[in-house]
């Protein structure tokens, strides 16, 4: 029996430039827009909670719709006791991102809609995961430090409640707004690697929790979401404003990949990085010279990357610095990306199932020609 032949001319390494499906959720073609709205306007005029609603339901919420959505999410801000016990049982060295992936997988067993793949059930599950993921990050963070987890505050926004549950004190309005904007910018990005992973998983008629678990696995890598945890490493290696230029020139001559720069789609710069940069700078400068020096260092690296490589920062570059300026520990940075991107991932899972066709591409075979099996006794 023979299979249909793949089309070699359709091959593009890394699927670069390939259209792999349709979406009405966002586009990067004409500046980044979520459901038609420019991301800059959304960051300026709306909050992450409104953006999560927009991504899941297709429209910006009216006041009463937002209040009802926030109330449902707030009600779901807790983890089943066995998941908290699992956090206690995991090795101390487990990374927060790996723990979040495990937590989402474990949460599936406790979700009453687990086996229901209807649109309505997936929206309910999406809202619950939106609520539970920040709780999982914060609870595991505190347990890993020998601290008691903190009960969520129902009246707080996604961003404010996360900072409260992590630190045990309410953050300042400026910190909450800065985090909220970064979450808006992280929420959705078309067919990026983790979103595509989620769509592939659910295209088999698997379920939302499996898709999100897989998406978190894809996000982890430093070529994707893991890059925001590498930004402070880059800056520390650069040393400071005095040594940054020499360091970056040297690193480039060694052909090093500078985390936080470059993008598969944006070759002339990432609009999201431009939006977050002044916010990161403001918080760093407010924190004093020890923090402000990283902004100066970053500025020098940006200039040299543009001059020598024609390469520009992506969102992870200012986000890594912003979270550092907010005194957050590096291993929670990629989990924080995930607690925002859950909104986009879930919207894509629902969209995929609304008009599903199994995602099953072909490969170009480059292996050995046909061979005959020699039995083990004759192979020597
Ligand atoms: C995001 C990324 C994977 C996109 O890359 P891509 O479109 O697949 O491009 P490639 O990996 O094929 O790289 C093309 C060339 O640019 C170089 N390059 C890409 N990103 C680079 C970076 N951040 N620093 C230095 N050089 C880089 C590669 O080394 C390669 O050079 P070569 O042709 O001399 O071998 C890549 O830019 C990268 O690794 N960036 C750093 C990680 C990061 O910040 N990820 C977050 C993305 S939002």
Give a nutshell description of this structure.
This protein has 380 residues and is mainly α. The protein contains 17 helices and three strands. Strand 1 (26-27) and strand 2 form a beta hairpin.
Quote the distance from N terminus to C terminus.
Answer: 33 Å
Low-confidence runs of at least 5 consecutive residues: none
Beta strands, count = 3
Bound molecules: coenzyme A
In N-to-C order, the SSE pattern is: EEEHHHHHHHHHHHHHHHHH
Specify the overall morphology. globular
pLDDT averaged over residues:
97
Helicity range: 55-70%
Largest sheet: 3 strands, antiparallel
The strand order across the widest sheet is 1-2-3
Cα-based radius of gyration, to the nearest Å = 22 Å
Structural class: mainly alpha
In DSSP terms, counting alpha (H) and pi (I) runs of 4 or more, how many helices? 17
What amount of the residues lies in strands? under 5%
